[in-house]
Amino acid sequence: MRIRLGILGADDSLAIIQNVTNEYKELHCIPVIYWDEEEIIDFIRPYMHQVDMWLFSGQVPYSIVKEWGEIDCPMFYVPHTGASLYRTLLRIYYERQIPVQQLSFDTYHPSEIERLLEEVGIGERVPYVKHYQGGISAAALAQYHYGLWKQGLTKAAVTCLRTAQLELEKLGVPVYRVLPARSAVESVVQMIIRTGEMLRFQDAQIAVQMMEVDSLFAISNETFSTDEIYKMEMKVTEKLLKYAKKIQGSLKIAGPGRYVIFTTRGALKDITDHYKIIPTIKELEDMDREIAACGIGVGRTAYEAEIHAGKAFLHAKKYGRGTWMVVFDDDTIAGPLGRAEQIRYSFDCAELQAISQKTNLSVATLSKISAILRKLGKNEMNAYELAAYMQILPRSARRILHELEMKGLAEVVGETNPYPRGRPRKVYRIFLG
């Protein structure tokens, strides 16, 4: 099966990347050109379910999409180091004989450029480098280069961003664009192909889905009889058999109202949109009120997958009726599926185990808090936010935050008061490493 690879980049770099990817029969490429960093997410969104992986022409588009946080598939970008930078510097010296001290650079760390120069016997310091992490606007980069050139400190700019190049050309600044080198593209493509092989292996792993179905929930008082219960259970079994066929699995009845389906990781990943949603398909139509809990387990063996499914099922029961949870082969837990408060956390973290020994909090609780902070993109929250994500009472959340505060792992940094007559809510800054 060919890898559906989305390639997003500026026009010039995209052409170079495609010249390489077109040589690989393992890839089916979907090129996407952008001209403005602010449009990248809008360009990405229509292809989210049409690609298996993404390749970006550079660090900026990659960082913008990563910070967006809505892409679950593997993402890669072509680095502009090595041959890419050597080629640009050679061209500058050949055309204009400008020494590196009179050039302004962006994207790179100064040590990267100086290390490359040392490799060819040039021990020069590079004074003008705009290093940044994550995304940045073309206007900000252009102003950096323009300011230095206007002051007479530099004679040309070296940029990794196509849009910054276009801005600088408008301003009249001599500018050179660092384009991806063929060797760098080939290296990333090889990594993509190896990742695809690994994912195919993962998709073939055994997965077990464990369900508890309450047939009585759909029966009214007027129709309550043993015959009616039997008919309802037969209907449930028939629906689950169709569902099992849909996901290429086999159904096993594990007691009254308990069902187990053996299938593959890939089949469940597809039907749950990468383990984010509860399937809305006709095979499970009208069963959303009847499924009391569902646990999905992934494992290297059928036994391990079934054990993980049981663990996920018990966690789903704790969260409340209709909850779906997943336990993966690396012992991480994800869920509840289909809810805004969905998180992924782990029981196996040496750092959190050390913190657990200092507090009265379990590794599971600490891991959940860490996952919630990652999802929120900040290290501050109040008790009500914590309670909503952990599905616990606010007073229990306050006890957890107080415990962290007492052990020096959290501090009160402010208060919020969403209701004028209500009690102010303390905002805690949490330090879990």
TrEMBL record:
<dbReference type="InterPro" id="IPR043128">
    <property type="entry name" value="Rev_trsase/Diguanyl_cyclase"/>
</dbReference>
<protein>
    <submittedName>
        <fullName>Transcriptional regulator</fullName>
    </submittedName>
</protein>
<dbReference type="InterPro" id="IPR036390">
    <property type="entry name" value="WH_DNA-bd_sf"/>
</dbReference>
<dbReference type="InterPro" id="IPR036388">
    <property type="entry name" value="WH-like_DNA-bd_sf"/>
</dbReference>
